[in-house]
Design brief:
This protein is α+β, with helices and mostly antiparallel strands. The protein has a domain of about 200 residues: MetI-like (MetI-like fold, Orthogonal Bundle), CATH 1.10.3720. It is about 65% helix and about 5% strand. It has a 4-stranded antiparallel sheet. A two-stranded antiparallel sheet has the order 4-5. It has a two-stranded antiparallel sheet with strand order 6-7. A hairpin with a 4-residue loop joins strand 6 and strand 7. Helix 9 packs antiparallel against helix 11. The chain is globular and about 70 Å long. The model has no long low-confidence stretch (mean pLDDT about 85).
C-alpha cells in the first residue's frame, strides 16, 4: 500500500490563500496609513484640525426651511441635522412617488394601446437621456419661478394652491379623539405585520399571489377605519391655507425649491424604474401568461396574480439601485438653492475652514443612508424570493 506524503506548507492551497489575504490586508492598511499621515501633515501645515469640535460652535447663518426649530445662534451640528432631515424628507417622499409613477409608466410601456405606449416611451426616452441637473434647473426656473403671484395663484381641487411662493396644501390638525384613534392605528400595524409573517410562512397561503400583502394591507386600513367611527368625532380636522395679500397662512407650505427638487427627482427616477418594471415583466415566461388566459383570467388578474409575483425577483435588485441613486442625486438640489445635506455642509465647510472633516462627514452620512436602504430592500427581496419557492 503506497504511503501518502504530506503537502509542504508552501505548496498547500489553503495556506497560500490565507497568506495572500493577510498580505493584501496589510498592503491596504499601509496604504491607508500613508495617505492618512500625508493628509494629517498637510492639514497641520495649513492650521486645520481633523476633529469635529467645530460642530459645537455657533453657526450664524440662516437656513431657508427646516423640519426642526433652528436659528442662527444654534450650533453647526444642529444646522447639519437640519440639512440631513431635509435630504431624508425629499428622498423619502421621492422614493414613494417615483415608485408609483414608475410602475404605472412601466406597465403603460407594454400596453397594447398605441397612444398609451408611445406616450410612455416618449417620456422615458426624453427623461433618461437628459441630465438631471438640467431638468432641475428647468423645472425650477422655467416652471415654479414662472408661476403667478399670490393674488393670482392657481387653485386646484381640495384647497391646493400654487404660486411663486410655492405649493400650499391643507394640513391635518389633531382633535381630542386623536390619541384614542392612535391605539387603533397601532393595533392595525401590529395585526398587519403578524398576518403578513404568518401567511407568508404557511405552505398553502404562500402559493396564493399577494395574499399575505393584501391581508396585511386590509388589516392596516380596516382597523383604523373602524376606530374612526368608534371614537365618535373625527380624529383630526383639515386646516385649509388662506390666501392673503403677499402670502398664504395656515396649511402646509412647500417652498419652490423643495417642490422643484421633488418634482425633478420623481420624474427622473420614475423613468428608470419604469424600464426596470418593464424588464421584470418581460422576464416572465410567455407560457405563464398564455396559461393564465387559458383558465379565463382577465388582464388585470394576470398582471396581479401571475406576472408581478414572478417579476418581483427580477425587479427588486435594480430597484434598490434606483432608490440609492435618488437619495444621492438629491445633492444636485444645491443648484436651485434647496438646503439639503450637501448644501448645508458646503456652507459649514466655507465658514469653519474645515472642508476635509465636513466632506468626510457628508460622505459617511450618505453611506449610512445607502446602507440602511440596501438593508431594508435586501430583507424585502429575501421575502419575495421565499414566497416564490
Amino acid at each position: 500500500m503506497e504511503r501518502r506524503t504530506a503537502v509542504p506548507f508552501w505548496r498547500d492551497v489553503r495556506v497560500l490563500t490565507a497568506v495572500s489575504q493577510i498580505v493584501f490586508v496589510l498592503i491596504l492598511a499601509l496604504a491607508a496609513a500613508f495617505f492618512y499621515s500625508n493628509l494629517s501633515a498637510a492639514m497641520r501645515q495649513r492650521g486645520l484640525v481633523a476633529g469635529l469640535e467645530f460642530l459645537q460652535r455657533e453657526s450664524a447663518f440662516e437656513i431657508g426651511e427646516a423640519l426642526i426649530p433652528y436659528k442662527p445662534s444654534d450650533t453647526y451640528g444642529r444646522a447639519f441635522m437640519v440639512g440631513l432631515l431635509n435630504t431624508l424628507l425629499v428622498s423619502g417622499i421621492g422614493i414613494v412617488l417615483a415608485t408609483i409613477l414608475g410602475v404605472i409608466t412601466g406597465v403603460a410601456r407594454l400596453s397594447s394601446n398605441w397612444l398609451v405606449n408611445r406616450i410612455a416611451a416618449g417620456y422615458i426616452e426624453i427623461i433618461r437621456n437628459t441630465p438631471l441637473l438640467v431638468q432641475l434647473v428647468f423645472i425650477y426656473f422655467g416652471v415654479f419661478v414662472k408661476l403667478p403671484p399670490v393674488r393670482e395663484s392657481i387653485q386646484f381641487p381640495g384647497a391646493i394652491f400654487a404660486s411663486q411662493r410655492g405649493v400650499f396644501l391643507p394640513r391635518p390638525v389633531p382633535t381630542p379623539t386623536f390619541s384614542t384613534w392612535l391605539i387603533f392605528v397601532a393595533v392595525g400595524v401590529v395585526a398587519a405585520i403578524v398576518l403578513w409573517i404568518v401567511l407568508a410562512r404557511h405552505p398553502r397561503t404562500r402559493l396564493v399571489a399577494f395574499l399575505p400583502q393584501l391581508s396585511g394591507l386590509a388589516a392596516l386600513l380596516l382597523i383604523p377605519l373602524l376606530g374612526w367611527f368608534l371614537v365618535g368625532a373625527a380624529p383630526f380636522d383639515w386646516e385649509r391655507p388662506i390666501r392673503e395679500r403677499f402670502n398664504f397662512s395656515g396649511g402646509i407650505g412647500l417652498s419652490p425649491e423643495f417642490s422643484a427638487a421633488l418634482t425633478g427627482l420623481v420624474l427622473y427616477t420614475a423613468a428608470f424604474i419604469a424600464e426596470v418594471v418593464r424588464g421584470g415583466i418581460q422576464a416572465v415566461k410567455r407560457g405563464q401568461i398564455e396559461a393564465a388566459r387559458a383558465v379565463g383570467l382577465g388582464e388585470g388578474q394576470i398582471l396581479q396574480l401571475v406576472v408581478f409575483p414572478q417579476a418581483m425577483r427580477v425587479i427588486v435588485p435594480p430597484l434598490t439601485s434606483q432608490y440609492l441613486n435618488l437619495a444621492k442625486n438629491s445633492s444636485l438640489a444645491i443648484a436651485i438653492g434647496y438646503p439639503d445635506l450637501f448644501n448645508v455642509g458646503a456652507t459649514i465647510a466655507n465658514q469653519t475652514g474645515q472642508p476635509v472633516p465636513v466632506i468626510m462627514l457628508i460622505m459617511a452620512t450618505y453611506l449610512a443612508m445607502s446602507l440602511f436602504t440596501s438593508l431594508v430592500m435586501n430583507l424585502y427581496n429575501r421575502t419575495v424570493q421565499i414566497m416564490e419557492k
